[in-house]
């Protein structure tokens, strides 16, 4: 990839990362109730899943992904159910519990958050088809080297994390401005509703 194509690729992936979808909604909900730091593992899980799809696209494995449609469908429903469950927990959370979340997550919670993010992105095998159509614009897939794939993966990961972090920080600002118990309770319900909606969208989309 040339410098120009690398920069264009980075910008395109950045725009892709902030496009509304279940992942973005999940990050908004998490950041509104727990702050931007609580969304780092969630964002990383989504980014890693996307990178795996990018690598599969580079190696021409889109057909394999399509033949595993049943597996992806099961993952999608599991991910949707988990999002709805988390949304309900946010909706019913007490203000004191929301405040305690400022202390940060345990390693176990961070791993669970990473897996959640990974499942959200992994549940959509159409992402690999996006990369199959998208990558030829920036590189010749017939003469790819391992370095080309590694460079594209690093660019994509950086762009995805930058975009998702921007979403998380922006959403967390609403939380900073709402300090009263009533405001925090309303914020919990808004975030819970967003998370439940994301789960419903993930389950019902074609």
UniProtKB/TrEMBL annotation:
Keyword Transmembrane in record: yes
Chief location: membrane
Keywords: Cell membrane, Membrane, Transmembrane, Transmembrane helix
UniProt keyword Metal-binding present: no
Taxonomic superkingdom: Bacteria
UniProt GO MF annotations: amino acid transmembrane transporter activity
Bilayer-spanning residue ranges: 6-28, 40-64, 70-88, 153-174, 186-204
Membrane topology (UniProt): Multi-pass membrane protein
Record's subcellular location: Cell membrane
One Gene Ontology cellular component annotation held by this UniProt entry: plasma membrane
Protein name: Threonine/homoserine/homoserine lactone efflux protein
Organism of this sequence: Marinomonas aquiplantarum
């Amino acid at each position: 990839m040339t410098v120009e194509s690398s920069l264009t690729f980075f910008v395109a992936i950045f725009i892709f990362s902030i496009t509304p979808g279940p992942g973005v909604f999940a990050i908004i909900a998490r950041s509104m109730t727990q702050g931007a730091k609580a969304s780092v593992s969630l964002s990383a899980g989504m980014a890693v899943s996307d990178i795996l799809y990018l690598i599969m696209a580079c190696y021409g494995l889109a057909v394999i992904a399509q033949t595993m449609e049943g597996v992806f469908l099961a993952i999608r429903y599991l991910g949707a159910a988990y999002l709805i469950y988390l949304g309900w927990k946010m909706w019913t959370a007490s203000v004191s519990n929301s405040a305690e979340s400022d202390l940060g997550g345990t390693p176990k919670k961070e791993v669970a958050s990473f897996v959640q993010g990974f499942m959200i992105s992994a549940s959509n095998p159409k992402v690999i088809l996006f990369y199959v159509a998208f990558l030829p614009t920036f590189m010749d897939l017939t003469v790819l080297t391992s370095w080309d794939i590694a460079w594209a993966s690093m660019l994509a990961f950086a762009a995805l994390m930058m975009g998702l972090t921007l979403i998380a920080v922006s959403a967390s600002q609403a939380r900073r401005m709402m300090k009263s118990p009533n405001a925090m309770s309303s914020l919990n319900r808004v975030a819970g509703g967003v998370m439940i909606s994301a789960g419903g969208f993930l389950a019902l989309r074609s």
